[in-house]
Specification:
By secondary structure, the protein is α+β, with helices and mostly antiparallel strands. The protein has two domains: about 60 residues; about 110 residues, Roll (Chitinase A, domain 3). The chain is about 35% helix and about 25% strand. The protein contains three helices and seven strands. Strands 1, 2, 3, 4, 5, 6 and 7 form a seven-stranded antiparallel beta sheet that branches. A hairpin with a 4-residue loop joins strand 3 and strand 4.
């Protein structure tokens, strides 16, 4: 059992009694002190999980010699290459791109084929928040590799199909077009 999964189980064990208590005794309120203590506990657990994710991502970057990969303020890791004179994609633009999504261990989860690229309007949702951020770092004709920690991807539960709970995912994107 991985450390991440253990932390997730601990989180559930801590939360479940609070939720079940709340359902049984709706008239009973949690004191400010109890709320503060629970919040501190969740903050500590979150910090441990974020640090663990960062360590796994940095190990992946090192193993794959991804020199030049940067981290955004939100925790998105990115590397974009290719020349383009076009402007960056921005909120409101429609982007058309091909992609490949895999787990850190290389397991392929999803990919587009050449006849069916993905399109979406930036800022309108419908994709992972990390992908929203990623495409705004790209111009038409560029390629990029993006590593999304769980909070920018599918979170605690995964996608209930190919991506397991609390997964770090790797997106390889080719920006085919940006409609301003």
């Amino acid at each position: 059992m991985s450390k991440t999964y253990r932390y997730f189980i601990i989180l559930v064990i801590l939360v479940y009694p609070l939720l079940s208590q709340e359902c049984k005794h709706k008239e009973q309120r949690v004191s400010r002190q109890e709320f503060t203590e629970v919040r501190k506990t969740f903050t500590k657990i979150n910090k441990v999980l974020v640090d663990q994710d960062r360590s796994l991502i940095e190990g992946y970057i090192k193993r794959h010699n991804l020199d030049g990969m940067k981290e955004s303020g939100t925790g998105l890791y990115y590397l974009v290459w290719g020349n383009s004179n076009d402007s960056l994609a921005k909120v409101g633009d429609v982007v058309e791109y091909s992609f490949r999504v895999s787990l850190l261990d290389g397991t392929l989860c999803y990919q587009t084929d050449s006849s069916n690229p993905k399109k979406f309007r930036v800022g309108k949702g419908g994709v992972e928040s990390g992908v929203e951020q990623a495409v705004q770092l790209m111009r038409r004709g560029q390629k990029g590799k993006f590593i999304l920690p769980p909070h920018l991807a599918y979170g605690l539960q995964g996608d209930l199909k190919m991506i397991p709970p609390r997964s770090i995912i790797v997106y390889d994107i080719e920006m085919l077009n940006v409609y301003h």
